Amino acid sequence: MDRSELLKEMVESVGVSVGVYGENGRYVYVNDAYADLLDTERESLVGTPIWEVVPDFDAERFDDYWDSFTDGETRTAETVHEYGGTSVPISAVTTRRRIEGVPFHFGTIQDISELKQREQELREQNERLEAFTGVVSHDLRNPLNVAKGYVDILQEDIDRDELELVESSLERMSILVDDLLRLAREGQAVDAKEPVSLMAIGTAARETVATGEATVTVASDLGFLADGSRLQQLLENLIRNAVEHASEEGDPSVTIGALADDEGFFVEDDGPGIPPEEREAVFSPTRSEGKRGVGLGLAIVKEIAEAHDWTITVTEGRDGGARFEFRDVELD
């Protein structure tokens, strides 16, 4: 089999867009899929230098690029291929291969137009979301701050329980605004995972939540991989949720610790618990007043857990309260 037939057999067997060029940088072979991608004929591409198809290539530096490859080496890159007025964003996998002792670059090319379009749409969506959260932050916080200021002034002259109720409601609204902004801005995103200590993060979370007379204990440690900041946020929300609801039956106790099998961690309290029929809906941000899960705190907990690919189970605590278990963590 001569060289051209061998090239043809190799290229056609791949089943994707393929271009092969030699040390002079000119295509020696392309398949129909690659020609169709650029809306042209195969014959028009053969003999064309790659720098006339890939604007990122510098013709004067092609020799350096060619010499930088070793036999069998593979590189991946995202770029744009252009020909005859057609421009296509692509992902290319280029491998150095020898055929009858002669080196060639064997490239498989994938059209990523849809991916780039989705990325652009996501960028635009994020810009709209950032604008929205800015409006929410400004237009809701300002009236809340004004209302709190007037309540403070009234409390200096009037001793009424109703003012404390108003103040409590305003504080709750402020927490809901914070949760809404956090959920809108962060969603399911997590930064790079790194080794974390449940003991250290749990202790930090305990120190940042107003727990009142509640007792929060980090009972055991566990080392695993997570976005430490988001993990702390998850624990803060669970502590806050437990303190708010478990306090209905006195001074609550909240415990954070590793599961018995060391495959995850838990947060539980000794409050009234969550009835089995409500556990599936507990993370919904549209819960009615008086039920566990009011607001967005637990919705954010779910978002953070899903972003880490953790499994959440809501069950009964050892002292009858609510217990949240997180499994499928990546152990350190």
What would you say this structure looks like, in words?
By secondary structure, the protein is an alpha+beta fold. The chain has three domains: about 5-110, Beta-Lactamase, CATH 3.30.450; about 115-185, Orthogonal Bundle (Helix Hairpins), CATH 1.10.287; about 190-330, Heat Shock Protein 90, CATH 3.30.565.10. A hairpin with a 5-residue loop joins β9 (about 255-260) and β10 (about 265-270). The two termini are about 55 Å apart. It is built from nine helices and 13 strands. The protein has a five-stranded antiparallel beta sheet with strand order 2-1-5-4-3.
Helices and strands, with pairings:
Blueprint lengths: L2 H12 L2 E5 L5 E4 L1 H6 L4 H4 L16 H6 L6 E10 L2 E14 L2 E10 L1 H45 L3 H26 L7 E4 H11 L6 E4 L4 E4 L1 H19 L6 E6 L5 E6 L27 H11 L3 E6 L5 E6 L2 E2 L1
Parallel strand pairs: 7-9
Antiparallel strand pairs: 1-2, 1-5, 3-4, 4-5, 6-8, 8-13, 9-10, 10-12, 11-12
Helix pairs in contact: 5-6, 6-9, 7-8, 8-9
